[in-house]
């Protein structure tokens, strides 16, 4: 049994209003969505599906309007179709805004990930610098202690050089005294008359 034309028009109008409300609710959910990108993408897909259903119902209503026998009812229904199309056009703009919003959110999440990686690399570089500074400080302390040891060695060498000079002078004087004594003894023994 075929559905009467006016009943079909009423059903189409009711379904259009229902889809319109569902689209509004989904757009509000997109605005309120602070969850992950997958949730935003899922809501965006649902909005697109509802728009497809809404377009289909508006086309059915337009077809029913063209099939009306009375010109006044035909014009009234065509006017309603035009109103629905205008509303859908405004909602399509909202849909594109929602899509742009999700793209911006995805871009911001990517930037956030890049910034997180940069911060982590900076922390690693900072840790490397701290370790290098610690190594340099340790090497500096070793050089200071080695410098002290070298200074002490230099002082000892200078002292031993002076000692060596003094020892050589004493040995020379002792040798001279010994030779003088030997000569004196030899002179007295060999030449007692002198």
Low-confidence stretches: none
What's the story with the biggest beta sheet? none
- Beta-strand portion reads under 5%
- Helix-strand topology string: HHH
Class by SSE composition? mainly alpha
Helix content: over 70%
Question: What Rg do the Cα atoms give?
Answer: 54 Å
Discrete helix count: 3
Multimerization status = single chain
- The best one-word shape is rod-shaped
Quick one: how many beta strands?
Answer: 0
Distance between the termini: 174 Å
> Quick check: average pLDDT?
80
Subcellular location: Endoplasmic reticulum membrane
Keywords: Coiled coil, Endoplasmic reticulum, ER-Golgi transport, Membrane, Transmembrane, Transmembrane helix, Transport
GO molecular function: SNAP receptor activity
Transmembrane segments: 169-186
Describe the structure.
The chain is mainly alpha-helical and 194 residues long. It has helices spanning 5-32, 37-66, 71-190. α1 packs antiparallel against α2 and α2 (37-66) packs antiparallel against α3 (71-190). It is rod-shaped, with a radius of gyration of 54 Å. The mean pLDDT is 80.
